[in-house]
Design a protein that fits this description.
The chain is α/β, with parallel strands linked by helices. It has 2 domains: 149 residues, 3-Layer(aba) Sandwich (Rossmann fold), CATH 3.40.50; 57 residues, no CATH class. 44% of the residues lie in helices and 9% in strands. It contains 11 helices and 4 strands, in the order E-H-H-E-H-E-H-E-H-H-H-H-H-H-H. A 4-stranded parallel β-sheet has the order 1-2-4-3. The longest helix is centred in the middle third of the chain and has 22 residues. The relative contact order is 0.07. It is found in: Mitochondrion; Nucleus. InterPro entries: 2oxoglutarate_DH_E1, DH_E1, THDP-binding. This is oxoglutarate dehydrogenase (succinyl-transferring).
Length: 281
């Protein structure tokens, strides 16, 4: 399994979660053993110029915090992009560390194809209007190298257009639009095919007192004999033992019983985060 994350350039520089996940990337409990980050860098965040959006030269500079290798590649050169992606995949599978591919490209139309970019970036968009699309550039290169000829190229384009046209024609036969089919893919165990919950009932999660007492006693004892524990901890354990005897629970003991009962049923539990190591939760 290889984890691949796709980012926009403005999001990569501007979203706190990108920085946070980099800092989690090499922690033993959180690592994915290397994520390949692909940044589609169209050099404008909605209508914002990079100089107004971040303080670093590249949007990907945030990845330097974990010394991740960062490859900046011209997205108008498909072979260079493929080469760089292969290097990134090899890096990840060899060293199990994050790696970033920065596809330096541009947006031919405005944000979400609706915005008029000439309002905010007129000079850039005058250049983009003159720029040959990447498909045309690459086709011309391959034709000049004799890899394909013009009729073969046109045939491939026609074949692809036909797929799109047929799908468009088929879409008109859809009479009912199920919005929920677009939103997520519901787990089959939870919902029926038409999206209704399979069942609103849930099994009893209660426990008999014998089990609770057993868990409470384990929770208030020390598993090793002749083991000196901190005085403060022995007081906590003693108090906990007295709570169990008096058939009373406080919040911490109730939490302990909940976790203990799951463990007793063989269900794996992972606790992480603040105060876990010292047993507060």
């Amino acid at each position: 399994v290889m984890s691949i994350l796709l980012h926009g350039d403005a999001a990569f520089a501007g979203q706190g979660i990108v920085y946070e996940t980099f800092h989690l990337s090499d922690l033993p409990s959180y690592t994915t053993h290397g994520t390949v980050h692909v940044v589609v860098n169209n050099q404008i965040g909605f209508t914002t110029d990079p100089r107004m959006a971040r303080s670093s030269p590249y949007p990907t500079d945030v990845a330097r915090v974990v010394n991740a290798p960062i490859f900046h590649v011209n997205a108008d050169d498909p072979e260079a992009v493929v080469y760089v992606c292969n290097v990134a995949a090899e890096w990840r599978s060899t060293f199990h560390k994050d790696v970033v591919v920065d596809l330096v490209c541009y947006r031919r139309n405005g944000h979400n194809e609706m915005d008029e970019p000439m309002f905010t970036q007129p000079l850039m968009y005058k250049q983009i209007r003159k720029q040959k699309p990447v498909l045309q550039k690459y086709a011309e290169l391959l034709i000049s190298q004799g890899v394909v000829n013009q009729p073969e190229y046109e045939e491939e384009i026609a074949k692809y257009d036909k797929i799109c046209e047929e799908a468009h024609a088929r879409s008109k036969d859809e009479k009912i639009l199920h919005i929920k089919h677009w939103l997520d893919s519901p787990w089959p165990g939870f919902f029926t095919l038409d999206g209704q919950p399979r069942s609103m009932s849930c099994p009893s999660t209660g426990l008999n007192e014998e089990d609770l007492t057993h868990i409470g006693q384990v929770a208030s004892s020390v598993p090793v004999e002749d083991f000196t524990i901190h005085g403060g901890l022995s007081r906590i354990l003693k108090t906990r033992g007295e709570l169990v005897k008096s058939r009373t629970v406080d919040w911490a003991l109730a939490e302990y019983m909940a976790f203990g009962s799951l463990l007793k049923e063989g269900i794996h539990i992972r606790l992480s985060g603040q105060d876990v190591e010292r047993g507060t939760f």
